[in-house]
Amino acid sequence: MKMYKCCIFDLDGTLINSIKAIAYSCNLTLRKYNLGPIDEDTYKILIGDGYKKLIERALIHCGDTNLENYEDALITYMEYFKIHCMHEVKAYDGIYDMLDFLKNNNIKIAVLSNKPHAQTVENVDKIFGCGYFDRIAGEKSNIKRKPNPEGAIITANDLDVNPCECLYIGDTNTDMKTGISAGMDSVGVTWGYRDRKELEDFNPKYVIDHPSEIVDIIKSTVLVSN
Fold first, then answer.
1. What's the superkingdom here (predicted)?
2. Distance between CA 145 and CA 153 in Å, rounded?
3. Terminus of the chain with fewer CB atoms < 10 Å: N or C?
């Protein structure tokens, strides 16, 4: 029977609901060019592949199909996001209990996000506390962003676990592709920004509706404490 030793989590839409911070920062950016605003539900479709792709998609959505404002908008967005990345950000219900269970049972926990690294660390540290996770990694220039599996594999190596001993947990097709390509069992979560069909279309090992189901998965594979 497979024994999982590590859980690697996507951040936005998986551990935390940060859609308001992203939407607020991006709409401030769009306003500079007399574009937008875009509603939060639309942002749930636009995000997931890093801020550069977010800005590209947002500009096109608002009619800037030639991306005339793209380069300036990248700079403007990051200026706003550095200030507002914690705007109404909160952990999803059940996340704290699930993470505590993993830590109490010696399951290593990590975050791998396409959000810029500094803001990834800020979100995680302010929501969960400094040093709570074994590893935190956001987007960095020297590591290919998801769905490339490089970041997930580096995370497993740094934590001295085999990729096949890891669960990769996320809320988008990008996450499902990342985990599978890294040789990990992928877990799609339905409480995030995408629907069950999108997740199932990419054949994850599990699709779950509540963080407590991660506890169930671990309990089914390892001997854990009460």
1. Bacteria
2. 12
3. C
pTM of the complete model: 0.94
Helix (H/G/I), strand (E/B), else coil: 6: strand
How many structural domains does the chain have?
A: 2
Residue 2: C-alpha distances to residues 5, 166, 210, 220 (Å):
10, 10, 22, 9
Quick one: 70 and 99 in the same domain? no
- Report angle CA 19, 21, 24 to the nearest 5 degrees: 105
Question: Among 66, 84, 102, which residue terminates a domain?
Answer: 84
What does the pLDDT look like over 119-175, one tens digit per residue?
999 999 999 999 999 999 999 999 999 999 999 999 999 999 999 999 999 999 999
- Average pLDDT over the chain reads 96
CATH code of the domain covering residue 175: 3.40.50.1000
